[in-house]
UniProtKB/TrEMBL annotation:
The keyword DNA-binding applies. GO terms for biological process: phosphorelay signal transduction system; regulation of DNA-templated transcription. Pfam families: GerE, Response_reg. It comes from freshwater metagenome. This is Unannotated protein. PROSITE patterns: HTH_LUXR_2, RESPONSE_REGULATORY. One of its GO terms (molecular function) is DNA binding. Residues 4-120 form the Response regulatory domain. The keyword Phosphoprotein applies. Residues 136-201 form the HTH luxR-type domain. Keywords: DNA-binding, Phosphoprotein.
């Protein structure tokens, strides 16, 4: 059964290019188009698509604000954000708003089609090629300078006593910093913290 898609973008040429490319896949059907938030909401509730592609900037409403309205009307719909502005701020705002995926408009039709197929099956699985970079930036912002020093020492295999001696702080203070690091990285132990730090590029391997 074909995946049904609603295209929301105020640029007709972009919609046309995307429509032609997706229709050519054979397993994705464009069932509607909209050039504004109000039109998108009206068409979406009428055709009830599996996936909606959304531009972040629409003439009457932000695509990020529109997400909430669409999710209220169609709780199970998958939402793919397409934008010319793939900065980290938008990635996390889209995630927080309830988007299923986030791609730059420079993405190929094959990449967009592949993402549509994925989120049509699992709308709650957020996907974005910018997410790892954004996670790194957010983690850097969350960790204090002292916590980054301690994280680097943890990666090097230093003990709590060695970290305390090197940084001239008590072992109790070191343990408190480590607990804060675990909480911010959403990990439970040193091994997970080290793996997360290396994966996100927070420290040099």
């Amino acid at each position: 059964m074909a995946t049904s898609v609603l295209l929301v973008d105020d640029h007709e040429l972009i919609r046309a290019g995307l429509r032609n490319g997706l229709q050519a896949t054979g397993d994705i059907t464009v069932v509607g188009e909209a050039a504004s938030g109000a039109e998108a909401l009206a068409v979406a509730t009428r055709v009830r698509p599996d996936v909606i592609t959304l531009d972040i900037q629409l003439p009457d409403i932000s695509g990020l604000e529109l997400i909430a309205q669409l999710k209220e009307a169609l709780p199970d719909v998958a939402l793919l954000m397409l934008t010319m502005f793939p900065e980290s701020e938008y990635v996390f705002r889209a995630l927080d708003a309830g988007a299923s995926a986030f791609l730059g408009k420079e993405s190929t039709v094959l990449e967009i089609a592949s993402t549509i197929r994925t989120i049509a099956v699992n709308p709650r699985s957020f996907s974005s090629p910018y997410l790892a970079k954004s996670s790194q930036e957010r983690s850097h912002e969350l960790l204090t300078q002292q916590e980054r020093r301690i994280l680097s020492l943890l990666v090097e295999g230093a003990t709590i006593k060695e970290i305390s001696d090197l940084l001239f702080i008590s072992q109790a203070t070191t343990k408190t910093h480590i607990n804060h690091i675990y909480a911010k990285l959403k990990v439970k132990n040193r091994a997970q913290a080290v793996a997360s730090a290396l994966r996100l590029g927070l420290v040099a391997p």
